[in-house]
Write a structure and sequence with these properties.
The chain is an alpha/beta fold and 428 residues long. 29% of the residues lie in helices and 21% in strands. Helix 4 packs across helix 10.
Length: 428
């Protein structure tokens, strides 16, 4: 990049244990042959696999990070800013400058160090166009969190269908371990796929955080179980069996630690199936004799396929599947958002606004499960942690003070569309 060329804002950190810093003057990257440059409008708050690997930790040893609600991967939505001549000449791709897109997260496309207003996609075939009916902030949640949950549901669909076909009266019990964003996506996907069989498939969510369990209950699960570490294992097993009458048919474990795997295998029925996912690297001891004796199966799930992501885009854009609740934040507040996530004080998904070019509301419709209102109503008592001189929270505090002195009333948040007027906002 020549000196004096175009510049962009980047919010970056060297590792997952360090603070983000905002640099407003990074050079805008060029466009590689066969690739494209995307102007990023929204990005999910997540960790990438290389970040976790470089940390040297088997699992993120940070308070509250007990599942993969902080997704491994790369979640962005934006608009194609520039394409190479090779891509422009390929009519089969159907890509043009100005197209709204998301990126299928191959390892090569992962951004490891932060969030930028522009990203380079080396292989344009990894871009998926999104229709105008799909909100840009929602689209940013699909490539990793939504896709991984979709992949998990696809793995269990044949098994659940077979169980349902064996009897018209049997109940299929599904236990989801971890009440983070992945679990909320599974609940929404199950709601769509079960249809008339929803009364015969009971989905129970287990987690150590009671507030997350409340949110899972509101998102439609059958029941919740609080897994406190101080409780005796036999008591937890008894609690699971009481809720899941007859035992558990399917487990989706988004924590995948030795403790959670041991607990779930203990309550898994004969011919049951355990789906393991997440970004932990634990070695888990398995009693192969018991596994064989009970004809149980263990299947892994990680990232879904490009075709699955394209199908997920269609289902969400056509409103056949509604996303779980989420909130959007300016990217300058990355430190504060990740702090709240790591302390389990932010529930649902967090999505960053990256590029500000005026009215970003043109990129979403009021038909989603976003939590609306002022983003930082719940953050006002906290000190700003941004490095940016144009920090959003500072401007907001000044604006709030001015508004309060004029009207004598504090600004209030509104609830997400589709909720009762008196429904509570989930505090951070």
């Amino acid at each position: 990049m020549e000196r004096g060329g175009p510049r962009m804002k980047t919010v970056r950190r060297e590792s997952i244990t360090e603070e983000f810093e905002c640099n407003p003057c990074d050079p805008v990257p060029g466009v590689p042959t066969g690739g494209a440059r995307v102007k990023v409008y929204y990005a999910g708050a997540c960790y990438t696999d290389p970040q976790v690997f470089r940390s040297g930790q088997k699992r993120l040893l940070m308070p509250g990070v007990q599942d993969t609600s902080l997704f491994p991967g790369f979640e962005v939505s934006g608009i194609i800013d520039k394409i190479s001549a090779v891509v422009a000449a390929r009519s089969d791709l159907g890509l043009s400058v100005g197209d709204r897109v998301i990126v299928y997260p191959t390892c090569e496309e992962q951004t490891e160090d932060g969030y930028s207003e522009y990203i380079v996609v080396k292989d344009a075939t990894q871009l998926i166009k999104i229709p105008d009916s799909l909100d840009m902030d929602i689209a940013a949640m699909l490539p990793c969190g939504g896709l991984m949950a979709y992949s998990a549901v696809e793995r269990i669909k044949p098994f659940v269908s077979e169980r349902l076909s064996q009897s018209t009266n049997d109940i299929v019990n599904v236990l989801i371990v971890g009440a983070g964003g992945l679990s909320l996506w599974v609940l929404k996907l199950a709601e769509h796929y079960l249809g008339d069989n929803s009364h015969r498939v009971r989905i129970t969510v287990a987690d150590s955080n009671i507030d997350k369990l409340h949110l899972a209950k509101e998102e439609g699960c059958y029941d919740v179980i609080e897994w406190k570490d101080e409780l005796h294992e036999e008591y937890i097993a008894m609690r699971i069996r009481n809720v899941c009458k007859g035992g558990v048919d399917v487990v989706i474990d988004f924590v995948s630690s030795s403790r959670t795997v041991s607990r779930t295998l203990n309550v898994l029925k004969e011919n049951g199936i355990l789906i393991v996912g997440g970004n932990s690297k634990f070695e888990v001891p398995i009693d192969l004799h018991t596994l064989a004796l009970k004809s149980q199966s263990i299947l892994g799930v990680h990232r879904g396929t490009y075709a699955q992501l394209a199908q997920l885009v269609h289902l969400v854009a056509s409103e056949q599947i509604r996303p779980p609740k989420f909130r959007t934040f300016p990217v300058e507040q990355a430190n504060l958002v990740f702090q709240k996530l790591s302390q389990s004080k932010l529930f649902g998904r967090a999505v960053f606004r990256i590029f500000e070019d005026g009215d970003n509301s043109v990129f979403f419709h009021e038909n989603a499960s976003r939590i609306l209102g002022s983003d930082f109503d719940d953050f006002e008592d906290h000190d700003c942690q941004c490095s940016s001189p144009d920090c959003f929270c500072g401007r907001r505090r000044q604006s709030s003070s001015s508004s309060s002195s004029t009207t004598g009333q504090a600004q209030t948040s509104t609830v997400d569309v589709g909720s009762p007027v008196d429904a509570p906002i989930f505090t951070l």
